Amino acid sequence: MKVKLLIMVVMMLALSSFCFAQDNATEAGTEDTDTTAVVESIILPAPPGNLTGIDKPNDHGHAAILSWDLSPDDGAGENSVLKYEIYKWVPQLMLDINLVRDSLSVIQRILRNTTSGITEGTQADSMKIVFEKYSRDELFDIRNTLIAHVKQENTGLAEASNSYPENGAWLFVDKKPSGTKSFVHIGSKDFKSAGFVPDFANLYYRVDAVTIDGAKSSSKVLGPIQTSGQWYNTYRTPVVFSVLFFTLLTIYFVREARKGADLYVRPLGGIEAVDDAIGRATEMGRPILYVLGLGSAADIATIASFTILGRVAKKVAEYQTELLVPTYDPIVMTVAQEVVKSAYLDAGRPDAYKEDTVHFVTQSQFAYVAAVNGIMLRELPATNVYMGKFFAESLILAETGALAGSIQISGTDEIAQIPFFIVACDYTLIGEELYAASAYLGKEPVLLGSLKAQDYAKAAIILLAVIGVVLAQFEFGAAFVNLFEVAN
Questions:
Q1: Per-residue pLDDT at 11
Q2: pLDDT at residue 189 greater than cutoff 60
């Protein structure tokens, strides 16, 4: 009952808008209108021929590719074709479903407590009446009922499409300029959308050639054709081979690392300087400040920073140097506490661990920066380590550390902040060097193996790119380049 009532509401809205437009047109009319009809002969253009259609390959379905021969009048004198209009035949059931979808859109707009830009007029008044008549919970129930109704009726579209040409109508789909020979009709796969095109249902199309005078001729009807989704996109075959190649490389190097093979990793200046910085802090009797940044525990940069923190904490425990780790996020603080505690245990100094080594400050960005800057100026740490995700506070931290006379080592994957760290810090890990540092320090077989696999994969990409550039200068080079073409 509620579904029928909402459909009636939509029809009333449309009718009231139509009447309102007719009244305005009547008022704007003039009394001296010449009602003499002028009939001119209109020459119809020749229709487009050989209309064909196929299911669009390598997609999720719900799409068809149409092709046709140009009208003989396309670009031919006064009767030249201006455009082509594409129409699709839909059964009456689809028209009924679209009406229910309209009702659903009205309900959703009312639930959002907006009239979608309509602030006055009969439509807005009608929506307000509906909103006043039903509670929000009742409107939610009506919306869910409409969705269920649309979903249920959509299951019968394939059967209803068999009734062609009875019980249906031609709906305009799109238009293309003269000279166009094809069109890809991509429908929606969402059954709640008015542009929904069902898979495995008979589809019928026609193309009209239209002149500048509005005269049109229709092609022969195309159909039935059906659409369906494919499990495998052949356009992405190069991606499959790339993934398999990288996977095999990773498995190979991980196995080698577990066997104890000495896998060479390019030395990173910032990581090599960590031991010297810790030794300097020990000699000066001043603490080491480690800042994990403003990222969450789920950020890759923060996860990589945890590994570096473990290495620093282990060295600090061995040298009996003080470590300060102020954190921005409570979850990051909890993880960092466990990392530092485990590092002290691995160093054989669990008794030296202090609970306040890792402490929470605040989750206000610049209040956190002010607190960390205060620690720098009061404690005067010998070394500041910034590893993780940083934002606008990066330069403020680095400049304050420089004023405190600290050696500073930084690393982040935020491209916009890297220049600030480079100019204000002694050592900077740029981008993915931060991730490589965790593998370099941790010596975990999985991390080390994946790092080596990445290096070899990059080398392969560079080599293929160079070969492609060279071969592209020759006629036969296009075939090689096309092997690596990826399309959606």
A1: 45
A2: yes
End-to-end CA distance of the chain: 45
CA distances from 458 to 266, 300, 467 (A): 14, 20, 14
Q: Which CATH class is domain 269-443?
A: alpha beta
Q: What percent of the chain has pLDDT over 70?
A: 77
Tokens found for residue 365: 């960005």
Gap between the Cα atoms of 242 and 181, Å rounded: 36
Neighbouring residues of 164: CB distance < 8 A, sequence distance ≥ 6: 89, 91, 202, 204, 223, 224
List every span in the chain annotated with CATH 2.60.40.10: 2-15+44-225
Of 148, 145, 150, 221, nearest in space to 191 by CA: 150
2-15+44-225 has which fold?
Immunoglobulin-like (2.60.40)
AA identity, residue 270: G
Report yes or no: 405 and 231 within 8 Å, Cβ to Cβ: no
Query: pTM of the prediction?
Result: 0.59
User: In whole angstroms, what is the distance from residue 286 CA to residue 276 CA?
Assistant: 14
Q: Given strand 407-412, what is the order of strands in its sheet?
A: 358-360, 323-327, 288-293, 383-389, 407-412, 427-430
Cis geometry, peptide bond prior to residue 165 (ω within 30 degrees of 0): yes
Residue 153: predicted pLDDT: 57
